[in-house]
From TrEMBL:
<dbReference type="Pfam" id="PF01243">
    <property type="entry name" value="PNPOx_N"/>
</dbReference>
<feature type="domain" description="Pyridoxamine 5'-phosphate oxidase N-terminal">
    <location>
        <begin position="6"/>
        <end position="96"/>
    </location>
</feature>
<dbReference type="InterPro" id="IPR012349">
    <property type="entry name" value="Split_barrel_FMN-bd"/>
</dbReference>
<dbReference type="InterPro" id="IPR011576">
    <property type="entry name" value="Pyridox_Oxase_N"/>
</dbReference>
<protein>
    <recommendedName>
        <fullName>Pyridoxamine 5'-phosphate oxidase N-terminal domain-containing protein</fullName>
    </recommendedName>
</protein>
Length: 154
């Protein structure tokens, strides 16, 4: 992935904040979650360990993601992302604190509820999860022309 691809992908990820997360155990399931990302294009989301998708991840860490702008008209240039990756729950309070700061910047408004204090006090059961991408398919018709996408294996 060259610098131009990275810049466009970062811009796209910054312009959106929801992703569709697909899990399987053994049957498929999807959930919509707010995400944040880091420079390595790892994705982070917050969810209850009791949710269906979190249970699925405990049994099968392979996941798929779709991120797109649902307001894009059919006649407009398309941008979007499909991703395969490996999911895991973040362990340790220091790393959870660090990831929550990133997540709150991307999905603000829940800082008073979704925080380390409430997690430690068991006021909330939510935890931070990380998705490490193995394949990213980035759709960007403005950047890639008629073909419309590039596939990056990480």
């Amino acid at each position: 992935m060259d610098n131009k691809d990275k810049e466009k992908l970062e811009k796209f990820l910054n312009a959106n904040n929801l992703m569709t997360l697909a899990t399987a155990n053994p049957k498929p399931w999807v959930a919509t979650v707010y995400y944040a990302f880091d420079k390595g294009f790892n994705l982070y989301f917050v969810s209850s360990p009791n949710s269906k998708h979190s249970h699925d991840i405990e049994k099968n860490k392979n996941v798929a993601i779709a991120i797109y702008d649902s307001h894009t008209k059919n006649s407009e240039s398309k941008t979007g992302l499909q991703l395969q990756g490996v999911a895991s729950r973040i362990k340790g309070w220091d790393m959870t604190t660090k990831m929550l700061k990133i997540w709150h910047k991307s999905a603000p408004g829940m800082e008073d509820i979704v925080n380390i204090k409430n997690m430690k006090a068991k006021v909330i059961s939510s935890r931070v999860y990380k998705i490490t991408p193995t394949i990213i398919k980035f759709f960007n018709q403005d950047l890639y022309g008629e073909e419309g996408y590039r596939v990056f294996k990480l």
